[in-house]
Design a protein that fits this description.
Blueprint: E1 8-13, E2 32-38, E3 42-44, E4 47-49, E5 58-61, E6 65-68, E7 78-83, E8 87-90
Antiparallel strand pairs: 1-2, 1-7, 2-5, 3-4, 5-8, 6-7
Length: 96
């Protein structure tokens, strides 16, 4: 498994199904995902500030860097690397 550094987060994007959309948009990138790994946090004035996000959180996010891993790692799944500041919110389990 990959271990993100500093305030980076590894996210498995959730692809929206066409039935969930009023109008299907084919080129739209996902804006939701599940956190699969988090970095240790970033340093501010010599102190490590831990991340608020945790593994398993269902999140909504803005832009990030997509990575595609080799076929031997989870079936060629696409993952996204975000900074914690790119996360807009955590979706409560009752709303998911």
């Amino acid at each position: 498994m990959l271990r993100p550094l500093r305030d980076r987060i590894l996210v498995k994007p959730i692809e929206r199904r066409a039935s969930e959309l009023i109008q299907a948009i084919h080129n739209e990138l996902p804006t939701e995902g599940i956190v699969v790994a988090v970095g240790p946090g970033k340093f501010i004035k010599g102190k490590r500030i831990p991340l608020e996000s945790k593994v398993g959180d269902h999140i909504k996010f803005g832009e990030g860097d997509y990575l595609k891993f080799p076929e031997h790692w989870e079936g060629n799944q696409r993952y996204l690397v975000l900074q914690e500041a790119d996360i807009a919110c955590v979706v409560d389990q009752g709303l998911a």
